[in-house]
Amino acid sequence: MKTIKFHGAALALALTLTSQAHAAPATHASLEALFQLQHADTMVDGVYDAMHKSMSQMFAQDGSKRGESPARQRIEAKAMDDTMALVRAEYNWAVIEPDMIDAYQKTFTEEEVTAMINFYATPAGQATITKVPQLMQAVMAGAQTRMQALLPRIRAIADKARADADAADTAH
Predict the structure, then answer these.
(1) What is the pTM of this model?
(2) pLDDT digits 0-9 by tens, 100-139
(3) Residue 135: inside a domain, yes or no?
(4) Which of 28, 32, 66, 112 could potentially form a cystine with 108 if both were Cys, beta carbons 3.0 to 4.6 Å apart?
């Protein structure tokens, strides 16, 4: 009796593993349809916009607390704007999409992607897509507050490391 149960369990496990191993990976076309439903291109832009806004506020507040001159704050703000422009130009959806397709194909089966497409095609799915940027802004606002509190400690670590490195250089 125990042998029959064991063989039955082993057979069920083997069939499960075999069916998962042979599941068709997501196709390029289905992933493009999924990304279109997710508004992936505009979502990437939204993430950059939210990140830029959050970083701008954080740097401005930090600069004011440190008593930086308005001229210095403008220069640093421009450098950050230029950095964000570079990142957006070189790491946009057109650049990211092939990597996303590859990652999704390695992660999801065609059946799973079809289920996602079916969900995102519903009003609830579209509401999820629409509200994710708002959700991310709320999350980033909380993270910004926490990072703002950490900046003096981070700066102290960096200052100490610089001082220790300077002392090590002069010792040699």
Answers:
(1) 0.58
(2) 999 999 999 999 999 999 999 999 999 998 898 789 889 9
(3) yes
(4) 112
